[in-house]
Backbone:
């Protein structure tokens, strides 16, 4: 696991938000992993609650893109 620099709670949230808005189908796995690392490093439940909507969104994008990829593979 990469060593994360010491970031404030607001900086961690800003990075998760940035990952949410800039992720692509090609980067979702790495972006989600980085967001989880940031989430786990948050000190309080309040901080994690603020990030929850972005984490849920990232997870939903990953699921949607994975489902779309499987549909494309089944078609001849």
Residues:
């Amino acid at each position: 696991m990469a060593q994360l620099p010491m970031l404030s709670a607001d900086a961690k949230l800003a990075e998760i938000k940035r990952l949410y808005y800039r992720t692509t189908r090609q980067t979702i796995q790495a972006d989600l992993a980085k967001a989880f690392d940031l989430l786990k490093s948050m000190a309080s439940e309040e901080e994690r609650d603020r990030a929850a909507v972005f984490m849920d969104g990232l997870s939903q994008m990953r699921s949607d893109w994975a489902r779309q990829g499987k549909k494309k593979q089944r078609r001849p």
Observations:
- The longest helix spans residues 45-74.
- The helical segments are 9-22, 28-40, 45-74.
- The mean pLDDT is 89.
- The chain has one domain: 9-74.
